[in-house]
Task: inverse folding
């Protein structure tokens, strides 16, 4: 396998793969819920190396991809307002809304700025007291503490022209929803190491017990993932279902307490739609009433809006493992990173983008014309 | 945005630190970090905040993973989205040293 042989630790990876295959007395279906892991699995061809023993379903592990279309459209509406400076992580700029994306709004004169940190957005608000500065607060538990902190600081410093459009999602309710789906095939989960570095894994313990499903907190590099898979397989083979931690070097059971506390002080749980999947109860975060002054949806009176999802995009089936990206009829033809139909093709953590870039790389290695993807 | 990025603490005051990420220096906040940090420590950072002090024994392994990622992405046709992600995080806006 070309990719793995190029990997510096191929000598360690191979025995791990053999061991997983030996331990698995029947085929098992695992899901990773981390875009970084998806990317590594596809890029290193781990799914192909494990074929026959392990099927990896790429779960909804990309927060950019599951941000609901309603929130994207609201972002586009806000960014187009003349008094607004709209700030966002760079990942969101090319995510397609109903009619366009943030980059296009910017090209038409909207003031859209990429920031590295929500604190940069707060700083912009302090420098431009005559403008309304809105920050697009998206992400999983990894960005929630920083975004909570920005709102906290805005209140502390008294920055009335700063607000946030919140579209946070949290991972454990998604795992629960996947396990409760009538056609679920997932038998074990790899949980995202960096999400758990912040939140710890105590929330996963009742899930593992209730759904009788092994959950292994796992890092994002190839050896981490193979080790995580092996730990999950060992649980499956011995009929255990607990939370185990493969990513010992980064994750502790209690996570980072100060970060967890700040998230709880600023945000509260709310039912949230996941793009392509639908509503998952108590899976999102919104600002608590004490921070209502910083809620862009309230400040600008954004109510319910009508959205228009591309009928050609099969993101929902991809996110639930029913469709592998290359089998999508639009893949690489009517849907490319340059002209995406859905978010999975543009985000660096999206499964479609991962397969697209792999196909492109393989095509280039085979000395075919650059850009060939089929 | 999900991937934390490790960096070396080179300056320190009460609530912020200047962190060196492969030559790019940024000021990050320390409100949320899990342990007290000192100059010379490595910390894992998410969007402007240090989240975790990386234990000394784990620093080399952690850096190696990221260096591999960044290095591969500069080799010929290989396009690595995660490296691009790390790079764009490091490059977003001008490197900031002003206090937030």
Result:
């Amino acid at each position: 396998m070309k990719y793995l042989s190029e990997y510096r630790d191929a000598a360690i990876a191979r025995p791990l793969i053999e061991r997983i295959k030996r331990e698995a007395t029947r085929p098992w279906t695992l899901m990773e819920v981390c875009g970084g892991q998806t990317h590594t699995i596809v890029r290193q061809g781990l799914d192909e190396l494990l074929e026959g023993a392990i099927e990896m379903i790429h779960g909804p592990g990309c927060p950019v991809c599951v941000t609901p279309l309603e929130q994207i459209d609201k972002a586009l509406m806000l960014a187009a307002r003349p008094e607004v400076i709209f700030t966002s992580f760079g990942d969101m700029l090319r995510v397609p809304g109903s009619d366009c994306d943030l980059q296009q709004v910017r090209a038409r004169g909207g003031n859209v700025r990429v920031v590295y940190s929500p604190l940069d957005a707060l700083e912009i608000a302090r420098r431009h007291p005559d403008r309304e500065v809105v920050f697009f607060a998206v992400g999983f538990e990894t960005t929630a503490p920083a975004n909570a902190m920005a709102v906290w600081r805005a209140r502390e410093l008294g920055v009335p022209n700063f607000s946030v459009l919140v579209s946070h999602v949290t991972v454990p309710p998604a795992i629960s929803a996947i396990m409760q789906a009538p056609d679920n095939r997932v038998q074990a989960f790899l949980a995202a190491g960096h999400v758990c570095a912040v939140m710890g894994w105590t929330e996963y313990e009742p899930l593992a017990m209730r759904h009788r499903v092994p959950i292994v907190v796992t890092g994002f590099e190839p050896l981490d993932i193979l080790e995580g898979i092996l730990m999950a397989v060992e649980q499956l083979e011995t009929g255990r279902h607990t939370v185990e931690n493969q990513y010992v070097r980064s994750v502790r059971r209690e996570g980072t307490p100060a970060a967890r506390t700040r998230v709880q002080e600023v945000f509260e749980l709310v039912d949230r739609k996941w793009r392509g999947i639908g509503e998952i109860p108590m899976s999102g975060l919104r600002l608590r009433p004490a921070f209502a002054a910083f809620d862009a949806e309230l400040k600008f009176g954004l109510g319910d809006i009508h959205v228009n999802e591309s009928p050609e995009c099969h993101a929902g089936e991809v996110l639930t493992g029913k469709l592998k990206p290359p089998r999508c009829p639009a893949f690489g033809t009517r849907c490319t990173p340059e002209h995406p139909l859905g978010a999975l093709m543009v985000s660096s953590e999206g499964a479609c983008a991962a397969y697209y870039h792999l196909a492109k790389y393989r095509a280039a290695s085979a000395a075919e014309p650059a850009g060939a993807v089929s | 945005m999900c991937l934390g990025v490790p960096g070396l603490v080179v300056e320190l005051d009460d609530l912020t630190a200047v962190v060196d990420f492969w030559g790019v220096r940024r000021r990050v906040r320390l409100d949320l970090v899990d342990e007290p940090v000192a100059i010379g420590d490595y910390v894992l950072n998410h969007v402007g905040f240090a989240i975790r002090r990386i234990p000394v024994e784990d620093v080399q392994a952690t850096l190696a993973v990221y260096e591999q990622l960044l290095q591969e992405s500069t080799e010929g046709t290989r396009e690595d989205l995660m490296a691009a992600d790390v790079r764009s995080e490091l490059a977003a806006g001008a490197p900031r040293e002003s206090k937030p």
Notes: Chain A has a mean pLDDT of 92.
